[in-house]
Design brief:
With 148 residues, the protein is of the alpha/beta class. Helix content is 45%, strand content 14%. The chain is built from 5 helices and 5 strands. It has a 5-stranded parallel β-sheet with strand order 1-2-3-4-5, with helices on one face. Helix 3 links the parallel strand 3 and strand 4. Helix 2 packs parallel to helix 3.
């Protein structure tokens, strides 16, 4: 795998114990960076406890769970993805809220839309970077995450 490769572990059962077991298994099988994926803070906490020392990226804080996910990121000292698919205004607002809350290590997920949505995805990513670089918008200066 090339530079920037990572392994994502996504909770599909929403069961904290099963997620923790899956995270432990994957972590034992690779030295690649890990991304833990769930919107449920209780599930995230269970997985995070198994690999905290690996400093995984946790996915994701959104409008519904940002506070609990921020608490997990701060407690574990790990980076946090901020997600607001298709809504750059909300994404920016959540980034500001999380920064004010004390979370400084953020990754932005503005949404990745396949098929007919690909032009919108490219336009949104370009607009975010334009605001960061040309308008010096620090809230849009964090790394972007695109999901295939």
């Amino acid at each position: 795998m090339g530079q920037g490769a990572a392994v994502a572990v996504r909770s599909v059962t929403k069961d904290p114990a099963m997620f923790a077991a899956a995270v432990r298994t994957v972590a034992g099988a690779t030295d690649l960076p890990l991304i833990l994926c769930t919107l449920d803070p209780a599930v995230m906490k269970a997985g995070l406890e198994k690999v905290r020392d690996r400093r995984p990226l946790i996915y994701a804080a959104n409008a519904d769970n940002w506070s609990a996910m921020a608490d997990l990121a701060l407690e574990a000292g790990v980076p946090l993805v901020v997600s607001a698919p298709g809504d750059p205004t909300l994404l920016r607002s959540l980034a500001r809220t999380l920064l004010n809350y004390g979370v400084n290590d953020l990754v932005l997920d503005p949404g990745t839309f396949a098929g007919n949505g690909l032009p919108e995805t490219i336009s949104t990513f370009t607009d975010i970077r334009t605001q960061a670089c040309r308008q010096f918008d620090e809230l849009f200066g964090f790394p972007l995450l695109g999901l295939p």
